[in-house]
Design goal:
The chain has 139 residues and is an alpha/beta fold. The protein has a single domain, classed as 3-Layer(aba) Sandwich (Rossmann fold). The chain is built from 4 helices and 5 strands. α3 packs parallel to α4 (122-130). The protein is globular. Bound molecules: adenosine-5'-diphosphate and magnesium ion (MG). The site of adenosine-5'-diphosphate (ADP) has 23 residues, from α1, β2, β4 and α4. Belongs to the universal stress protein A family.
């Protein structure tokens, strides 16, 4: 196991996923990539100006969150990368995993805005369904 990708959306569940991914990466001396996707807004009733403003807020939130993670991981004795992308979260996770040829994708079972009604959230479900490599959904 050389490369591990962990998807982080700022939620407690993805913090848990990050801890597990780090534990595996450290024990196997793998590189770790932390990916956060700024979700694209599809709400058609939004004006372009509102859409832009909300996207800016989401971007800043995501960058702040990455900075917090970067600090918490500083000094770890493995290679760690931090990526912020924009678009459909599941698609960006799958695309990044494919491009980087990762051996494992780690996600949380739930995220920030979802409901606990479903066994796992829609992003992790889509990643499990379409990924070509193993996926670990951390509960
Ligand atoms: N925007 C995102 N960027 C990176 N990872 C994400 C993003 N959204 C969700 N994930 C990953 O998917 C996991 C499950 O989230 P999700 O499927 O969105 O559940 P929910 O429906 O509860 O929000 C998260 O813990 C995280 O690992
Ligand atoms: Mg979500």
């Amino acid at each position: 196991m050389q490369r591990i990708l962990v998807a982080h959306d700022g939620s407690k569940a993805s913090d848990k996923a990050l801890r597990k991914a780090l534990e595996i990466a450290l024990s196997m001396n793998s590189s770790l990539t932390v990916l956060a996707v700024v979700p694209e807004l599809y709400l058609t009733e939004l004006s372009d100006a509102d859409r832009q403003r909300i996207t800016e807020v989401l971007k800043r939130e995501t960058e702040d969150n990455m900075e917090r993670i970067r600090k918490s991981l500083s000094g770890k004795p493995i290679e760690i990368k931090f990526l912020v992308r924009e678009g459909d979260p599941a698609e960006k996770i799958l695309e990044t995993a494919h491009k980087m040829k990762v051996d494992l994708i780690v996600t949380g079972s739930h995220g920030k805005h979802g409901t606990k009604k479903f066994l796992i959230g829609s992003v992790s479900a889509k990643v499990v369904e379409y990924s070509k490599c193993p996926v670990l959904v951390v509960k």
